[in-house]
Design a protein that fits this description.
Length: about 130
């Protein structure tokens, strides 16, 4: 099974950028469809973006389209989320998730993903 460790979160002002990373270990990274989710206290975990095993296909939450970019480097076993033009409503704990899958179906439901990281906090001040 794969282990996931996120990093790159922080406290920034509105309009700033952050690049989140998720390093995978313990299995062949390219076997996994990968995704980013986020969660604020008292709310359900929310899909943000997903990427196919070879990085060729992506999917985004409507509210982050044009601002966030998901990417992966299979040679480095690393998933990224470039977040630009951050807004206070982007404040959340961001989690990476992995799913072993042969088909290129990018799920948005948390129940579809098998492995999760511990999360990294992103706080955007106004």
């Amino acid at each position: 099974q794969v282990q996931l460790v996120e990093s790159g979160g922080g406290l920034v002002q509105a309009g700033a950028s952050l690049r989140l990373s998720c390093v995978a270990s313990g299995d062949t990274f390219s076997r996994y469809v990968m995704a980013w989710f986020r969660q604020v206290p008292g709310k359900e975990r929310e899909f943000v973006a997903a990427i196919s095993r070879n990085g060729g296909i992506t999917r985004y939450l409507d509210s982050v389209k044009g601002r966030f970019t998901i990417s992966r480097d299979n040679a480095k076993n690393t998933l990224y989320l470039q977040t630009n033009s951050l807004k206070p409503e982007d404040t959340a704990v961001y989690y990476c998730a992995a799913k072993v899958q042969l088909l290129t179906i990018l799920h948005t439901n948390t129940r579809e993903y098998d492995y999760w990281g511990q999360g990294t906090q992103v706080t955007v001040s106004s």
